[in-house]
Amino acid sequence: MRKVFVTLLILVFAVCVIAETKVAIVFATGGLGDKSFNDAALEGIKRAKSELGIEFDYAEPSAITEYETYMAQFANSKNYDLIISIGFDQADALTKISERFPDQKFAIVDMVVVKPNVASYVYKEQERGFMVGYASGLMTSQSADERVNDDLVVGVIGGMKIPLIDANIAGFMAGAKYADVNMKALHSYVGNWADPAKGKELTFSMYEQGADIVWGAAGRSGLGVINAAKEKNFYAIGADSDQGYLAPENILTNGMKRVDNTVYIAIKDVIDGKFEAKIYSLGLKEEALGYSKNLLPADIIEQLEIVKKKIIAGEIEIPAVIEEVE
């Protein structure tokens, strides 16, 4: 009986410890409702609340200049076991704040901050770019779908010209050319993460140049790519999350980035006492990146899976810089 009582006490104590875990998250400036990057991060922290019993607070900055203020407020409260920064452009603010609060644990998704209290999670962006570029190239060169024209042209629209987006674009271009060496892969940038109107305008421009499939790697701006595809009944490729529900007849596939899993793992590591201030580089092998099946034909999925295995095995070298795409 005493043994059972002690066991129950241990279980109650464990539950209490987990319940006391508090996390703060600072979203990227695209904000919640982007159906992509930020929303995926929110799903990860909601999962942690449901499965791990954590509590969380969050901030939605509208400008980069607000990052440091929100981080400082969270850190200064000394209420949080982990503070998570979502997005590459929080690196400068996090570098300053992590120095000011050396005892606070931080994590950043999509960028590296080398500090003794920061865990950095980055992705091999060129790998998912290659997968969806290859899917686009196969579709436009092999499919008899009436929405696919005879031109060997596909396109990708980035949110901003930064290294991680360029890695996606380089991978996309390389993947498209892997499908057909004569493939032309157009690319352009919105210059903003939250401008769907500009994303739509750029997509129409690519249609005029012969593209029938366009990937929007642009946060909330990517919603404009999807809207353009719906309006013209072409194909779009979603980003980060499965955006198929936004246009069930027009989302060919999605360039998946499992930000939700990354956020969940970062929180669980803190709870399990496994937090490490190091760089985690995640890709297809770790199932942190990938593609979704959606409207892809079975024969194209089969070819994609063959290439996926080759990438994981290191048999295909994918450029991370646009200029290196042959």
Explained architecture:
With 326 residues, the protein is of the alpha/beta class. It folds into two domains: 2-123 and 260-282, Rossmann fold, CATH 3.40.50.2300; 125-257 and 296-324, Rossmann fold (3-Layer(aba) Sandwich), CATH 3.40.50.2300. Helices cover 44% and strands 19% of the residues. It has helices spanning 2-19, 37-52, 67-77, 91-100, 125-142, 163-179, 196-208, 222-232, 259-271, 298-312, and strands at 22-26, 55-59, 82-86, 106-109, 118-123, 153-158, 184-189, 213-217, 235-240, 251-257, 279-282, 289-291. The termini are far apart. 51% of the residues are buried.
Keywords summarizing the entry:
Rossmann fold; 44% helix; 6-stranded parallel beta sheet; 6-stranded mixed beta sheet; 2 domains; 326 residues; 10 helices; alpha/beta
Structural topology:
Blueprint: H1 2-19, E1 22-26, H2 37-52, E2 55-59, H3 67-77, E3 82-86, H4 91-100, E4 106-109, E5 118-123, H5 125-142, E6 153-158, H6 163-179, E7 184-189, H7 196-208, E8 213-217, H8 222-232, E9 235-240, E10 251-257, H9 259-271, E11 279-282, E12 289-291, H10 298-312
Parallel strand pairs: 1-2, 1-3, 3-4, 4-5, 5-11, 6-7, 6-8, 8-9, 9-10
Antiparallel strand pairs: 10-12
Helix pairs in contact: 2-9, 3-4, 5-6, 5-10, 7-8
Mean pLDDT: 93
| Structural class determined from secondary elements | alpha/beta
Poorly predicted ranges? 4-18
CATH architect. name of the largest domain: 3-Layer(aba) Sandwich
> What is the number of independent domains?
2
Gyration radius (Cα, Å) is 21 Å
Question: How much β-strand is present in the residues?
Answer: 15-25%
Q: Tell the overall outline.
A: elongated
The major β-sheet equals:
6 strands, parallel
Kindly state the number of beta strands: 12
Give helix and strand order, one letter per element, not per position. HEHEHEHEEHEHEHEHEEHEEH
How far apart are the first and last residues' alpha carbons, in Å? Answer: 72 Å
CATH class of the largest domain, named Alpha Beta
Please report the number of helical segments.
Answer: 10
Helix content: 40-55%
- Corresponding CATH superfamily of the largest domain: Response regulator
Q: Please give the order of strands in the largest beta sheet.
A: 2-1-3-4-5-11
CATH topology label of the largest domain: Rossmann fold
